[in-house]
Amino acid sequence: MANRLKIVRTVPSLRRALEPYRRARAHIALVPTMGALHRGHMALVSEARRRAKCVVVSIFVNPTQFAPHEDFASYPRNFATDLRVLREAKIDLVWAPSVEDMYPDGFATRVMPEGAAKVGLEDEFRPHFFGGVATVVAKLFTQVSPDFALFGQKDYQQLRVVTQMAKDLDMPVKVIGVPTVRESDGLALSSRNAYLSVAERAVAPMLHRVLKQCANRIKNGEKVDHVLNVGRIEIDLAGFVLDYLEARHALSLAPIESSKDGPIRLLVAAKLGKTRLIDNVAV
Question: Could you give the residue numbers annotated as active site?
């Protein structure tokens, strides 16, 4: 259990590295990432360190959650910088497998979630996405066998899907959602924010402002459909191409009709130039 950062790239070496913690019955926490680490990821790391003796950060850009037209090849990658950040944070272990190790020749098993994965939000626009996420997260849970796994609430539908998968498959891991970390102007931190031009970056916080306004108006008793329609118009006028702005039950993500159907979560996805942004807030 040395203090210096250890990087492992194969499942056998991962399990050997974790064995001393298991013998000591020390809690292990996993923070799954695709690299390009920012303050949002580090909030997950901080919460993981609070809960566990050993913190494992996985860095793996998962090809199975990208469609052919999406940005897998250009997704931000800076492994050396990520390692420097994690070393400064005194992380114990980085799990950085290759695509060939995660999906070797002959790999033939997929996890295909339903429930929150098929409610007409991200799944409507990225139908491949949650199968890829569920499969790679199931593999990570099997490989690391963590006591805790930390996910950001920015990817709220993903959080609900992963939480349900762990419950349904009796995985002995507690999935924890960590509040979204934001810039001072409200923009949710995301690796994809690097794609925004200077002009687009100035407009991007509008998404969160509209979400907050909608949440406040629903709390104050205005009809949900009316509030959402106004919000959609505001987002369009700001220059976004809107995919969805929806009010959903915060646990099932089923559609709701009034504030009495809660707890409610507002979720939005929209493109600004070539960059697709998502966000959500509780009502």
Answer: 41
